[in-house]
Design goal:
By secondary structure, the protein is α/β, with parallel strands linked by helices. The protein contains 12 helices and 10 strands. Strand 6 and strand 7 form a beta hairpin. Bound molecules: glyceraldehyde-3-phosphate, 1,3-dihydroxyacetonephosphate and zinc ion.
């Protein structure tokens, strides 16, 4: 088994009208849960880690852990840097063995975003690594950066950006946002923007960030067993499935895994008050993550049996 890039998986996803799940992890149980889910569904997945997740786990520990788990569980996987903030961070991940990186220049002006993305693309492509960039700004909080309002992606800019940078995939802003509180009123995604970008960049893989559905069952379980998560709301599953049948080839989910793991651990500890073996409660968290990943593959991504 090996760490692979996204080239083949995105091509198959685009042609097959489905998307690849990109799941954030920062520890062993999350990693195992995602890979066990992928194995059970014979599906491609991406493991992704943010800068803070890499700092938490340690860059070399993370890479070696993903390689070893991919081998032991028996599933090839892409290891991706999520929201790389600058060239130095991206370079350190490429040098450490990541097979895919994101340079997130979405908070810069257009020209600076083009410049830093091109710099990353040149470095990455020489080393066989693929690059995702972002154009437009998602509302909400991502790592240390936050925005109150969406700045939807401009299709004209998207075409120019892709041509000038040579990037392999592009994250766009069409109304999703990071975290558990995505919509104050009705959920709405700008499918007209996605459609126009798809028409103007045929065959080019689009990425959707902030795409957790914020599963209400997990929220309810968290709250039932001592949590306090009020007003959480995610992207409706039918909208995500529609996006994955279009040019969206990668769908990012972190919040749903965090909620499922926390709910399972809270429940386990509440129901087993004398238990103090971390393998028991973290194992419950791992199983919950596997269940979420399998359900996403079935209901959101449509990627079952994407591995030949
Ligand atoms: O897009 C943000 C991801 O959910 C990562 O979050 O920086 O807390 O690891 P994090
Ligand atoms: P969620 O917060 O909706 O899970 O999005 C995660 C994400 O986009 C990571 O890059
Ligand atoms: Zn994101």
């Amino acid at each position: 088994m090996a760490l692979i890039t996204t080239k083949e998986m995105f091509k198959k996803a685009y042609e097959g009208g489905y998307a690849i799940g990109a799941f954030n992890i920062s520890d062993l149980e999350q990693l195992q849960g995602v890979l066990e889910g992928a194995k059970a569904k014979n599906s491609y997945v991406m493991i992704q880690a943010s800068k803070s997740a890499i700092q938490y786990a340690g860059p070399h520990t993370l890479v070696e852990m993903v390689k070893a788990a991919s081998d032991e569980i028996g599933v090839d996987v892409a290891l991706h840097l999520d929201h790389g903030p600058n060239f130095e961070t991206v370079k350190s991940c490429i040098d450490a063995g990541f097979t895919s990186v994101m340079i997130d220049g979405s908070h810069f002006d257009f020209e600076e975003n083009v410049r830093v993305t091109k710099e990353v693309v040149d470095y990455a492509h020489e080393r066989g690594v693929v690059v995702e960039a972002e154009l437009g700004v998602l509302a909400g909080v991502e790592d240390e950066v936050s925005s109150d309002v969406h700045k939807y992606t401009d299709p004209d800019e998207a075409v120019e950006f892709v041509e000038r940078t040579g990037v392999d995939s592009l994250a766009i802003a069409i109304g999703t946002s990071h975290g558990a509180f995505k919509f104050k009123g009705e959920a709405e995604l700008k499918f007209d923007i996605l459609e126009e970008i798809q028409n103007r960049l045929p065959g080019f893989p689009i990425v959707l960030h902030g795409a957790s559905a914020v599963d209400q069952e997990s929220v309810a379980t968290c709250n039932e067993f001592g949590g306090n998560i009020a007003g959480a709301k995610g992207v409706p599953v039918d909208m995500l499935r529609k996006a994955s049948s279009m040019a969206v080839c990668k769908i990012n989910m972190d919040t749903d895994l965090r909620l499922a793991m926390t709910a399972a651990i809270r429940k386990y500890l509440a129901e087993n008050p004398s238990q103090f073996d971390p393998r028991k409660y973290l194992g419950a968290g791992k199983d919950a993550i596997q269940a979420v990943v399998e359900s996403k593959i079935d209901n959101v991504l449509g990627s079952e049996n994407s591995i030949n």
